[in-house]
Design a protein that fits this description.
This protein is of the alpha/beta class. 35% of the residues lie in helices and 21% in strands. The protein folds into three domains: 219 residues, Enolpyruvate transferase domain (UDP-n-acetylglucosamine1-carboxyvinyl-transferase, Chain), CATH 3.65.10.10; 208 residues, UDP-n-acetylglucosamine1-carboxyvinyl-transferase, Chain, CATH 3.65.10; 205 residues, P-loop containing nucleotide triphosphate hydrolases (Rossmann fold, 3-Layer(aba) Sandwich). It contains 21 helices and 34 strands. About 1% of the residues have low confidence. Bound molecules: shikimate-3-phosphate. Shikimate-3-phosphate binds next to helix 5.
Length: 678
């Protein structure tokens, strides 16, 4: 399954137009297919979901010509629909299945609607029940009234129906069924939901009447084909609106986006949180949908409370709102949003789980969540759970993590926002161009919050050298130790020796509880002999076997164990009781010897490191290694705030060592008489 890696960005900047509105694109194809006369739709969203609707109406006998991916010419020359030869595939789209069911329930032929695994779990009882009251015959093949659905031929009659849940999909299904029913259909909404169907019906010449909270539609009226333009999808723009508003220094302009007030609840919530958003509505082209442009400037937001009444106007934006709530000061409460549990995934459960992976404190509620903002966002590996909006919401939060994050199963983004990741790169790269380069993304360990700061200074001087894979730190550390005439210690050797010991004993390394027991019984000896670290496990040194392919494959798993890292701390620290050391690793300056004054962080441009690793014959990707090192919970790779940072991209080993010696001198390291710089 496709994954996407996201590096942190300082800000979001630039100008974009988002793809066409998904809700309107579905409806445009459906209503134009029912109309007499031709319609040209421009701005159509050619996403997986909407293409399913397009193919379905082609299968029902409508002429739909795709002029370019976003422009369709639609005409139903026979003025009726014909039975499709096969089941109509609704893919991942709840909107398509619920709305097309309204169109097909009153036809004189049988239809079958199928969907993917996620859609096959979504509730259809909410449309089956009122449609059957209108006279439809529908069989849900799934266990809990879930798809596939078979709709038998039927003649419908108008009813009055009060929706038990505020749902534009159910309302639209009944409006479309009402169009094919005898008499009048009246629908009462508990609270207003998106009104695209009503606006489009009016555009095609059949204006539903409103009487208070009731919407009325007369059966048997004929729609007239009329060209229309689909504005950009506000729900797609929402990722940039929310992201830019919550990331200080951002500035984004979004043009030609739909600004239908039944969809833009997110703007009201963000304004309440302190966001800076300017909205300018353009003159309508007469197709009934307000659109315009938005200018968003980033700043510090504060938490807010989102209550049931505003949920329908921002239902699809709640995942990204939950994500950026983590960047706001204080708590954000989302209540009255139980509907989220029956979307493309259970969006409450899945967002809570992902936020927790990013290190965000969050409480799950039956109908929402409480997100506590203002904490450090940890780089994380999360899943989309097959839900496009979860994938995109988490991508926005990942921009503020302390390292590279990864979102798994991102293929689903194609259902609503093809090109999302291209836009993400464009808008976050604009900030990279104004930044100094890759170094601006380094995760610095904040000195204040290091609990180990109180650790005692080592008895003998210790030079701590940390850095990522292929940064050159081992060669440099060895050379430096030699120049200083003190011991060289590679902390990684200890993890390798233990891994070797575990493999020799045939222990399962994947499970920490299992290898813990064995490690507890191991005799681990670390000694400095001839200025080098020697590690013995139960009296034996691993020698060359410490670098065997088996050890290579397992060592990162062993080293990721928080328990083991803690257990080794006294062993490492003991070495400095009697010896001056240069010790290198990933957490020497931050966790092992946080109190030493002699700290370095050596890094290099990822492209240079990639080349170095290839020369060493290593095939694993630098990106993956960095991700593992920076995102693990136990002692993740960080540049300590008081470490001297060195970019070795364009330096020789000798130059780096000379720089380290200069810095050591400045920091008062007791240098031997006339150290021989290499
Ligand atoms: C939609 C309505 C909403 C929304 C969905 C699209 C529509 O669903 O979540 O993405 O196009 O009518 P409900 O109406 O079921 O809340």
């Amino acid at each position: 399954m496709k994954s996407f890696s996201i590096v942190p960005a300082m800000r979001l900047a630039g100008e974009i137009t988002v793809p066409g509105d998904k809700s309107i694109s579905h409806r445009a194809v459906m209503l134009a297919s029912l109309a007499h006369g031709p319609t040209v739709v421009t701005g159509f969203l050619p996403s997986e979901d909407c293409l399913c609707t397009l193919r379905a109406f082609q299968a029902l006998g409508v002429d739909i010509e795709v002029r370019d991916p976003t422009s369709l010419s639609i005409e139903n020359r026979s003025h009726r629909l014909s039975p499709a030869r096969e089941a109509l595939d609704c893919g991942n789209s709840g909107t398509m299945m619920r709305l097309i069911a309204g169109v097909l329930a009153g036809q004189s032929f049988r239809s079958r609607l199928v969907g993917d695994a996620s859609l096959s779990k979504r509730p259809m009882g909410r449309i089956i029940e009122p449609l059957e009251r209108m006279g439809a015959h529908i069989r849900a093949e799934g266990e809990k009234g879930t798809p596939p659905l078979t709709l038998e031929p039927a003649e419908l009659r108008g009813i009055e129906y009060e929706l038990p849940v505020a749902s534009a999909q159910v309302k639209s299904c009944l409006l479309l069924a009402g169009l094919h029913a005898q008499g009048v259909t009246g629908i009462l909404e508990p609270s207003p939901t998106r009104d695209h169907t009503e606006r489009l019906l009016a555009h095609f010449g059949v204006r539903p009447l409103r009487e208070g909270r009731v919407i009325l539609i007369h059966g048997g009226l004929t729609l007239e084909g009329r060209d229309l333009f689909v504005p950009g999808d506000f729900s797609s723009a929402a990722f940039w609106i929310a992201g830019a508003a919550a990331i200080p220094g951002s500035e984004i302009r979004i043009r030609s986006v739909g600004l239908n007030p039944t969809r833009t609840g997110l703007i009201n919530v963000l304004l309440r949180m302190g966001a800076q958003i300017e909205e300018s509505v353009e003159e309508s082209r007469g197709d009934g949908e307000p659109k315009g442009s938005l200018l968003i400037r980033g700043g510090k937001l504060r938490g807010t409370k989102i209550e049931q009444a505003e949920i329908p106007s921002l239902i699809d934006e709640l995942p990204v709102l939950a994500a950026i709530a983590a960047l706001a000061e204080g708590e954000t409460h989302i209540r009255g949003a139980a509907e989220l549990r029956v979307k493309e995934c259970d969006r409450i459960r899945c967002m809570v789980e992902n936020l927790q992976r990013f290190g965000v404190p969050v409480d799950e509620l039956p109908d929402g969540m409480i997100v506590e903002g203002g904490h450090l966002i940890r780089a994380a590996r999360v899943s989309s759970f097959g839900d496009h909006r979860v994938a995109m919401a988490c991508s926005i939060l990942a921009l503020r993590a302390d390292g590279q994050s990864r979102i798994d199963e991102v293929g689903c983004v194609e259902t609503s926002y093809p090109g999302f990741f291209r836009h993400l790169e464009k808008l976050s790269r604009a900030s990279a161009e104004t930044a100094q380069g890759w170094k601006d993304y380094l995760p610095w360990a904040p000195a204040r919050s290091e609990p180990n700061r109180i650790a005692e200074a080592p008895r003998c001087p210790v030079v701590a050298i940390d850095g990522p894979s292929a940064s050159g730190k081992s060669t440099v550390a060895k050379s430096l130790a030699q120049a200083l005439g003190i011991a060289y210690c590679n902390s990684g050797l200890v993890y390798r020796a233990i891994t070797w010991g575990l493999i020799a004993k045939g222990v399962t390394i994947e499970r920490e509880p299992v290898f813990k027991t064995t490690v507890r019984q191991m005799k681990i000896e670390c000694q400095i002999e001839g200025n080098e670290l020697h590690v013995r496990i139960d009296g034996k040194e691993p020698g060359q076997e410490a670098r065997s392919p088996e050890v290579n494959a397992a060592v990162s798993h062993v080293a990721a164990s928080p328990w083991l890292r803690k257990r080794l701390l006294p062993i490492f620290r003991q070495l400095a009781e009697e010896h001056s050391l240069v010790m290198e690793g990933r957490d020497i300056g931050t966790a092992v010897f946080p109190a030493t004054r002699y700290k370095f962080y050596i890094d290099a441009d990822p492209k240079v490191r990639e080349q170095r690793r290839q020369k060493q014959g290593e095939t694993d990707s630098i990106e993956d290694r960095d991700w593992e090192d920076r995102s693990r919970t136990a002692a993740p790779l960080r540049c300590a705030a008081d470490a001297a940072f060195l970019d070795s991209s364009r330096m020789t080993v000798e130059e780096v060592v000379r720089r380290l010696l200069d810095e050591l001198r400045k920091r008062g390291f007791p240098l031997p008489e006339g150290p021989s710089a290499p």
